[in-house]
Amino acid sequence: MKYIKTFESFLNEKAPETGLMFIPKTQVGANKMNTALQGSGLSAEWNAREGYFLFPEEEVNYDTLEVEIQKLADQNGIDGRIEGIFENQSTSKDDIKSIEYVETTPGNRLYKLIVKLANGEEKKLSSIGNLNKEFGLDIDEYLNRDSAGFEKEVKNKYPDIEVLTSEFDVS
Length: 171
Fold this sequence. Notes:
Blueprint: E1 5-6, E2 19-24, H1 27-38, E3 45-47, E4 52-56, H2 62-75, E5 80-85, E6 96-105, E7 110-117, E8 122-125, H3 128-135, H4 147-157, E9 162-169
Parallel strand pairs: 1-3, 6-9
Antiparallel strand pairs: 2-4, 2-5, 3-4, 6-7, 7-8
């Protein structure tokens, strides 16, 4: 049986280790996706704290699931992006060369984080919470809602990590 759970309903359960996240662009999009999911046959968990729907799935099925999610979003006029959560995450804070904090203009809100690793690889993340999970960091995601606060905390806690900032025009 497929169903939708709220984030609060699975706080005490073991979270799936892999899956696809659908991150709606707006709250209206989140509401539309919630409604669309109810008749779709897809199972997703809404994470109200981070602002995404998690579609638990094994990595081998990501391509098929991504197509289904995108089709559902397109059919219902929902803007958003899809990101994968991968089981094999062998990265740590020691692997980070730099973090670029990209914020929107106007509004100065976090758009994305671009993490550059020492091996040349680049990872794009949608939130400070995801950065903390991915690399085992401890950056306060509620107090650091702008690039200056983010940069200050990272430099205080992790002086070896370079912090860059840039802007993305959404007007």
